[in-house]
Model the fold of this input.
Amino acid sequence: MGKSIKTKLSGLEYVGKDETVIVELGYYGNNTLALRITDEIGEAVSSPTVNLESEGETPKEGHVFVKDYSENEGIYRALAGAGILGEAVRTVAFGVYDATAIEAPIIHPDLIPD
Done:
């Protein structure tokens, strides 16, 4: 992982409303962007993004696919509300159960890739 910011995310069951988390920018093996959320001591809280290369989908440059279903329900709204992600560009259905991912740009100035 590379760049990171400390923030609070609201509306998530697994993150306390007063808990500070760290959102980190990284890359998948195919060089598409990834986000990871940890607590302040580095323990994993969430991996909100998904790599859909095997589904034939690649996000636009500077964008990520966010898993906004099951245990990650509400994560897109929380990241957008914290100023990390911009407006959703599209929704992509994937997998056997037609899970969905939201494509959105990373807009926080401290997380925009070089």
